[in-house]
Design goal:
The chain has two domains: 88 residues, 2-Layer Sandwich (Alpha-Beta Plaits); 71 residues, no CATH class. It contains four helices and eight strands; from the N terminus they run E-H-E-E-E-H-E-E-E-H-H-E. About 6% of the residues have low confidence. Helix content is 19%, strand content 23%. It has 172 residues and is an alpha+beta fold. The strands form four sheets. Strands 1-4 form a two-stranded antiparallel ribbon. Strands 2-3 form a two-stranded antiparallel ribbon. A two-stranded antiparallel sheet has the order 5-6. The radius of gyration is 19 Å and the shape is elongated.
Length: 172
């Protein structure tokens, strides 16, 4: 049986959480994961109670609460992280899969002049993004094969302006 003690543990307000996943990237112990489009504390024993995730949450959905909880276990954290890393190779756990929104950036020169990118978010693989990501709100959705932006030079100019784009190659 796990020992319980009065200590600080993160709490997530499900109503405020938009599923962006920023907190999961900030949690070095892997105590937070996206489950059904919301951040969840998957085990009290993984949470050190320090709150590195708090400033990363754009919705203010995470707080620290003092309560009776399972004791923090560094051994359990190390085992959890080790198991997670072995799964990452199957689930594309690379940093490039992290959800991000950004302003328009300049693309590499293709025809002698810089082309502004209209890509508003990352990743573009539909299976890697939580359904409640902020860039879905009120957006038109463009589904495309992953080779199209490379094969069609005017893709950004002609199709992405005001749309949320997803690549179909990873579906299924």
């Amino acid at each position: 049986m796990k020992a319980k003690t009065l200590r600080k543990v993160v709490t997530i307000d499900e109503d405020k959480c938009n599923g962006c996943g920023a907190c999961t990237l900030a949690c070095a112990e892997g105590a937070l994961q996206l489950v059904d489009g919301k951040a969840r504390l998957i085990s009290e024993q993984y949470c050190d109670g320090l709150g590195a995730c708090l400033p990363e949450c754009p919705q203010g959905a995470i707080t620290i609460e003092e309560r009776v909880a399972d004791e923090f276990s560094e051994k359990a954290v190390n085992e959890h992280i080790s198991q997670s890393k072995s799964k990452e190779s199957l689930l594309c756990g690379c940093p490039s899969a992290a959800v991000a929104q950004f302003e328009n950036r300049k693309m590499a020169e293709v025809t002698g002049e810089a082309q502004p990118s209209t890509l508003s978010h990352w990743p573009v693989q539909l299976t890697l993004v939580p359904p409640k990501a902020p860039f879905f709100q009120g957006a038109d959705l463009l589904l495309t094969a992953d080779c199209v932006p490379f094969a069609y030079a005017g893709f950004h100019r002609d199709f992405l302006r005001g749309a949320v784009c997803w690549c179909l190659s990873q579906i299924g």
